[in-house]
């Protein structure tokens, strides 16, 4: 148990997972979903696959995840089930990045699924409640999450005795019990979970994590041999999937095992392997946990400076210290570490931070609340007994309070006065700080507005100049060349002999071709179809214009609003025009997919080709066209992502249609 005094208070955060885990065979899973969305399957099947793809990429590629979510929404038939699913997967998408938005989405999902009386809806309700509890964990604490588990999620699916969702919920409850050193109760729920999952989901990620959770439980009891049995079972499941991100959690379990067996030298390679997977899949919290164990090992090896650097880096990264109990542990470790190094002044600073935070926490009350909730879940009789004991205790406290009433009044009056003085002091400081922040914010907003005006002026000037040059070419030079051709034709009919007309006609054809090219240039400078028929028609014409014998362009428009302001339409048209021109000129592609869709104020552009691609360095340093493209995207307060390799290029752009309204 000594080996885990640091990590036992924070390992829970690593294994608290959202419902709907990704299968261990991640590539096969994602490929099968992409096959469905690219097939001729019905819209309902495609929408479900898009939902699952959104969940698959929510941690590793949030922009792609959002794109898939919007595609699912656009394809979903207008039913209560699909509406509820959208809210659920929207909550999944925001679960790590914006817990407040995720909480709102999960509550909407619960409301919608509750209208549907099916088995599938019951499982979604249980998962939505649990995920809602996860969003509130940092704000309400673990007792609230336990309350959600035992009063909302588990009762919702207990009637389905053999379903993996029930097994996973038991496993999550066991993790929280382990966190509070209730190892026997945790093992009981882990055993229930494993029994359900081995029978009904033998190759599932839920079973894999249940094995790891049980192994961790034994590690924190210093029972390494028992832990290894479950680690071996987990290894059998993950062995066939070396690319799976779940390998990060497996190597974390191996790290705990070797530390438990006091084999620190063998633990270090596990940490290095686990870090590769954790960083690759953006598992920031797990990454910091690996570093925390590395710190523990370095300190035991008396490499104090290295250990101190690791711990300070964890603090500066801030992922782990969101939880106050974790922060308290780090303060205590830094205090004792600096004392051991002889840095007494710095040790005193960290000790003061630790003491101040420790005084504000009531770990005993949290543990008592957890035990009360768990007892209520197991038996009503024990809950009544606890209530009676609490009543007796309250009565005794009331008697003591009556005997010391005057003393308490004096104490409270003194405390009130002190608190009032402190409150006035901090309130005054807060007002001054807010005033300074507001001033800085206003300056920043003014600078942004000025920058926007400059960009707007540049782009509007550019468009006016394009329009002027286009009209001059079309109406002026184009008309003049057409007149020249007519005059030449009339002159030839009267003055040339028939035997000389063939060569002259070839010259006329060249002149006619030049007029056509001139009009194409004028149309590109200011497309008439955009002004007359709107953005969707202009984009369709643009795609047809760039289509060649050896180049097919597939244009797809989804929900494009015809009422967009002309300035926004022109900028979107120029963005697409720039990308298509670059693709046609440089990519040597045979197929280009152009997809434009709109959802409320968000306009999405996706362009993919099967050409030769280009290097990222070229995109950053040498391409004036891409720099102009970025200027227009920034002008519409948008985001742009470019992925290019030797198999082709994919560009995803998200724009705000109200950015310049």
Automatic annotation (TrEMBL):
Keywords: ATP-binding, Coiled coil, Kinase, Membrane, Nucleotide-binding, Phosphoprotein, Transferase, Transmembrane, Transmembrane helix, Two-component regulatory system. It comes from the Bacteria. It catalyses: ATP + protein L-histidine = ADP + protein N-phospho-L-histidine. The chain crosses the membrane at residues 406-427. CDD domains: HATPase_UhpB-NarQ-NarX-like. GO terms for molecular function: ATP binding. Residues 468-659 form the Histidine kinase domain. PROSITE patterns: HIS_KIN (PS50109). Signal peptide: none annotated. InterPro entries: HATPase_C_sf, HATPase_dom, His_kinase_dom, Sensor_HK_TwoCompSys, Sig_transdc_His_kin_sub3_dim/P, TPR-like_helical_dom_sf. Its EC number is 2.7.13.3. Residues 363-406 form a coiled coil. The keyword DNA damage does not apply. This is histidine kinase. It comes from Chryseobacterium terrae.
């Amino acid at each position: 148990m000594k080996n885990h005094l640091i990590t036992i208070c924070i390992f829970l955060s690593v294994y608290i997972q959202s419902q709907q885990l990704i299968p261990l065979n991640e590539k096969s899973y994602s490929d099968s979903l992409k096959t469905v969305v690219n097939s001729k399957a019905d819209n309902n099947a495609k929408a479900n696959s898009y939902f699952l793809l959104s969940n698959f990429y929510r941690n590793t590629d949030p922009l792609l995840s959002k794109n898939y979510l919007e595609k699912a929404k656009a394809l979903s038939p207008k039913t209560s089930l699909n509406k509820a699913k959208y809210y659920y997967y929207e909550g999944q998408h925001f679960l790590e990045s914006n817990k407040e938005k995720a909480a709102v989405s999960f509550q909407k999902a619960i409301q919608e699924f509750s209208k549907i009386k099916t088995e599938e809806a019951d499982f979604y309700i249980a998962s939505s409640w649990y995920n809602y509890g996860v969003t509130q964990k940092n704000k309400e604490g673990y007792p609230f999450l336990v309350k959600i588990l035992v009063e909302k999620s588990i009762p919702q699916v207990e009637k389905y005795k053999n379903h993996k969702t029930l097994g996973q919920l038991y496993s999550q409850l066991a993790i929280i019990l382990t966190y509070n050193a209730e190892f026997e109760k945790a093992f009981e729920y882990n055993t229930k979970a494993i029994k359900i999952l081995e029978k009904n989901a033998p190759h599932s990620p839920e079973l894999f994590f249940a094995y790891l959770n049980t192994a961790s439980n034994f590690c924190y009891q210093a029972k390494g041999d028992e832990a290894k049995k479950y680690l071996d079972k987990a290894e059998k499941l993950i062995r066939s999937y070396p690319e799976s991100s779940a390998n990060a959690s497996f190597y974390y379990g191996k790290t705990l095992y070797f530390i438990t067996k006091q084999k620190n030298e063998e633990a270090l390679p596990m940490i290095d392997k686990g870090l590769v997977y954790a960083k690759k899949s953006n598992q920031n919290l797990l990454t910091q946990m690996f570093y925390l164990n590395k710190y523990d090992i370095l300190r035991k090896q008396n490499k104090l400076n290295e250990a101190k650097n690791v711990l300070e880096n964890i603090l500066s990264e801030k992922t782990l210290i969101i939880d106050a109990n974790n922060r308290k542990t780090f303060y205590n470790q830094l205090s004792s570490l600096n004392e051991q190094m002889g840095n007494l002044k710095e040790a005193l600073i960290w000790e003061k931070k630790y003491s101040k935070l420790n005084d504000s926490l009531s770990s005993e009350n949290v543990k008592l609340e957890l035990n009360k909730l768990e007892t209520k879940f197991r038996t009503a009789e024990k809950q009544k007994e606890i209530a009676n004991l609490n009543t007796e205790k309250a009565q005794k406290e009331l008697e003591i309070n009556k005997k010391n009433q005057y003393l308490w009044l004096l104490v409270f009056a003194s405390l009130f006065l002190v608190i009032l003085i402190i409150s006035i002091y901090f309130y005054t400081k807060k007002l001054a700080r807010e005033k300074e922040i507001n001033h800085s914010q206003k300056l920043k907003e003014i600078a942004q507005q000025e920058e926007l005006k400059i960009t707007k002026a540049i782009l509007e000037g550019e468009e006016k100049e394009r329009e002027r040059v286009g009209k001059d070419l079309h109406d002026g030079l184009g008309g003049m060349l057409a007149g020249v051709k007519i005059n030449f034709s009339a002159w030839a009919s009267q003055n040339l002999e028939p035997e000389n007309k063939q060569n002259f006609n070839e010259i006329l054809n060249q002149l006619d071709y030049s007029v056509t090219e001139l009009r194409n240039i004028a149309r590109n400078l200011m497309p008439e179809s955009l002004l007359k028929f709107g953005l969707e028609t202009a984009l369709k014409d643009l795609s047809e214009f760039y289509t060649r014998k050896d180049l097919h362009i597939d244009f797809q428009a989804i929900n494009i609003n015809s009422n967009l302001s002309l300035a926004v339409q022109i900028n979107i048209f120029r963005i697409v025009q720039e990308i298509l021109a670059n693709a046609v000129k440089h990519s040597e592609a045979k197929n280009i997919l152009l997809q434009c869709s709109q959802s409320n104020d968000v306009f999405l552009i996706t362009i993919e080709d099967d050409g030769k691609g280009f290097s990222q360095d070229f995109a950053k340093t040498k391409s004036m066209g891409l720099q102009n493209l970025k200027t227009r995207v920034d002008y519409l307060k948008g985001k742009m992502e470019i992925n290019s390799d030797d198999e082709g290029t994919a560009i995803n752009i998200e724009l705000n249609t109200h950015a310049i309204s």
